[in-house]
Amino acid sequence: MALIQCPECGQQISDKAPACPKCGCPVAAPAAPAASAETAAVMIQMPGKGLPANNIHYLLRMVDESGNEIWNGHCGEIVKINVSAPMKVQIWECRKKGVSSDWFTISAGEKYSCRFIEKISFPMPKVVGINVSPVDAIIDAVNG
Hints:
- The protein is mainly beta.
- The protein has a domain at 40-134: Sandwich (Immunoglobulin-like).
- 0% of the residues lie in helices and 40% in strands.
- The chain has strands spanning 3-5, 12-14, 40-45, 59-64, 69-74, 78-83, 87-93, 104-106, 111-119, 126-134.
- The strands form three sheets. It has a four-stranded mixed β-sheet with strand order 6-3-9-10, with no helix packed on it. Strands 5-4-7-8 form a four-stranded antiparallel β-sheet, with no helix packed on it. Strands 1-2 form a two-stranded antiparallel ribbon.
- 17% of the residues are buried.
- Residues 30-36 have low confidence and may be disordered.
């Protein structure tokens, strides 16, 4: 128990008292801990390993189910997003229409790795999609 000062009359009163015993002024109860969901980071390794240097500059974006962009950046980046509940997202390669991952659910505290799905074509393989899978650890995909 701690003593606080009544905001009305200045009397020292218990912090547990609902009102000042001298003047009757209600004392604001201490704020209860918020019933907030715990927020934790999700780590996502964007595709990039094995890409030629000129392809590392592909632009990627991640969107939620409403189409809101929650991240954008380059291949090979490690993305850290704070979430409090599982969230469905999709990753898109910005320069090519239709090149994306399937919808996948990210959860707090988890790690995911992404890689390009390529179709053999000449002279270079053609990126046709993005695969996402859970992993135990995140590595630097650009440097190996």
